[in-house]
Request: fold
Amino acid sequence: MLSATKRKADLKIVILGDSNVGKTSLIQRYLQGIFTGDQISTIGASFFLKQWGPYNVAIWDTAGEEKYSGLSSFYCRGASAAIIAYDITRGGSLQALHERHLQLLEAAEPTCLVVVVGTKADLVTKTTRQVMSFVGEKLALEQNEKKGRPRNGFRVNPFFETSAKTGHNVEKVFDFILNTCLPLDDEETARKSIRRNSTLDLEQKSSKQNRKETRGKCC
Reply:
């Protein structure tokens, strides 16, 4: 088995999307199984490390604000998988993907797996839904085709509607990525090997300085 402390990750995952779509909450729900609802906006990026069987997996949570687009492009370098997230109840977050975030995938690996995620499914009703599911499905297929992944190359569509609050489909997102990029013979062994609390905030100092100003915001 590879050492859990080896420096280079076997897989790099980057998550992109507008501010306040719930990217950090999605990761927190997956790694720690919790939802706080009062996340502070990510400044720059945060780095999370977990184990998947014998593999080390790096997850990069990027800031959604436009002023951090240059940094987000940097953090996309070498990514073999990307989660592009939007808020199902906020159409503007999908527009932001098209305007600022999708082009950042050019810095990722040529065959980067792209998974489209609609967040905040727990808030969706007939009146609050602003992005229909077929729109997200279409976007996922289009983005993967650009990366050389044919539409019929997936057992399931690389699109999920999720809720970090309830946990709906959150685990499925990451299991889909890991099983596609790092397939294992024994999935149960992989699940038991998850290391949940290994986190490094690259902007920890700045985050503390801005904590009072950003309290109540969700990234």
User: Anything to note?
Assistant: The helical segments are 23-32, 69-76, 91-101, 133-146, 170-181, 187-192, 204-209, 211-214. Residues 1-5, 194-219 have pLDDT under 50 and may be disordered. The radius of gyration is 16 Å. The chain has eight helices and seven strands.
